[in-house]
Design brief:
Layout (H helix, E strand, L loop, with lengths): L2 E7 L4 H13 L5 E7 L11 E2 L6 H15 L11 E2 L3 H12 L3 H14 L7 H10 L4 H10 L3 H13 L7 E4 L5 E2 L4 H17 L3
Parallel strand pairs: 1-2
Antiparallel strand pairs: 1-5, 3-4, 5-6
Helix pairs in contact: 3-4, 4-5, 5-6
Length: 206
Amino acid sequence: MPIPVRIFSDFACPFCYVGSGIIDKLSEEFDLDVAWVGRELHPETPAEGVDVLEVVDPYDLEQATRTLRERGAPYGLTFCDMTRLSNSRPALEAAEFARDAGAYRAFHHAAFRAYFTEGRDIGDRAVLRALAESCGLDPSGLDAALDDGRYRERLRAAREEADRLGVKAIPCFFIADQPRLVGAVNEDAFRERLQAAATRKILQPL
């Protein structure tokens, strides 16, 4: 039986991108049933986005960028210079559209790469249409889904679930019955949790 892993994450969260790289690598070692759950990091961001320096101190941004590049390198993840904080809500809704079409994994990777590696605005409808098309999705269908707001309730429910579980920071990983992990922590910490979960499943009576 696969080990269930439920992850609260946002496309505007750089450490969530690193976390995705860690999970991808560990998926080669463990049989995982991974479910990504959209949880906005900055729901107050206006539709047009904001200059990242309105949110982050320049020194902190420089330090964070250096850390992210170091943490992402082992997983083949690269980070461009971050200049703008996008409104991630449309991308999270688009991801749900992709999920229903069976292309969540492809869109998930494409959205992270577009934002953090390519420096594109994932709050821009044209960017989302292009990402959808690159994943084999119908851009017109995505437009219709974003226009009618059919996935807003799903995101609201995800936010309520996160609040109910006491999720205060992302990424937040729930691995089977193990204590949660918060942030893109060391890969070995993930491996220990997964090994403990796998061992517990083996030892449980049928």
